[in-house]
Structures are given as C-alpha cells and as structure tokens.
C-alpha cells in the first residue's frame, strides 16, 4: 500500500490521541503497528530546527539623576580607553534570558522584565 505523507501524518495524529492504542489504529488502517513507529521516527527526523522569534521590547525613558547612568563627557581621559560595561543576566519565564547593563534603573528594569514575560 502506497500511503501519502498526508495520510501518514493523519494516522500519526490519530495514534497520538491520549486514549489511542497503536495496535487498534494500525488495524483500522490495515497496517502493522511497527509502521506507525517507523513513520514517527521518519517525520521527527525531518523536522527542521525550532523557529527563532524576536520579541518586541519598549524602553521607557526615566528622569533619573543617577550619575552612573549619565553619559561620560568625551574630554575625560577615562573615556578614551575602551571599557566594557558590567552586565547582568536575568532568567525570565519561559526560559528567556534578559541581559542588561548592571547600572540600569530599577523601574526601567522592572518594565523590561514585565514586557519580556508578558510576550
């Protein structure tokens, strides 16, 4: 019996129902139960990599006077050498990781975390 991919997927969907028994599904479609297992392996191997998606994020400007957040004037000697700002990583719901500068304002961080977790 030459079964199309659509028919195979339909049988696999039927076999994956919570109360389904592979032997019963195979009997209804006049195939051997092993065929269903073979199709499962075939189609799971053909699946592509998970789709990567980007979440939209809105940055909220705040009127803070914290000197650590102010831009460094270019006339200072320290500004001439390249320094890497300290960063922190925050684990969010759904396994997402938020990487931000350590000197981020708490209210901006709170809004950013909410935005990521609600997406």
How would you characterize this protein structure?
It contains four helices and two strands, in the order H-H-H-E-E-H. By secondary structure, the chain is mainly alpha-helical. Helix 1 packs across helix 3 (33-46). The radius of gyration is 27 Å and the shape is rod-shaped. The two termini are 46 Å apart.
Assembly classification: single chain
Task: Classify the secondary structure makeup into a structural class.
Answer: mainly alpha
Which overall shape is indicated by the principal axes computed on the Cα atoms?
rod-shaped
Continuous helix count: 4
Report, as a whole number of angstroms, the end-to-end distance: 46 Å
Order of helices and strands: HHHEEH
As a whole number of angstroms, the C-alpha radius of gyration is 27 Å
Q: Give the amount of beta strand, in percent.
A: 5-15%
The helix fraction, in percent, is 25-40%
Give, in spatial order, the strands making up the sheet with the most strands.
1-2
Q: How many domains in all? A: 2
Tell me the number of strands. Answer: 2
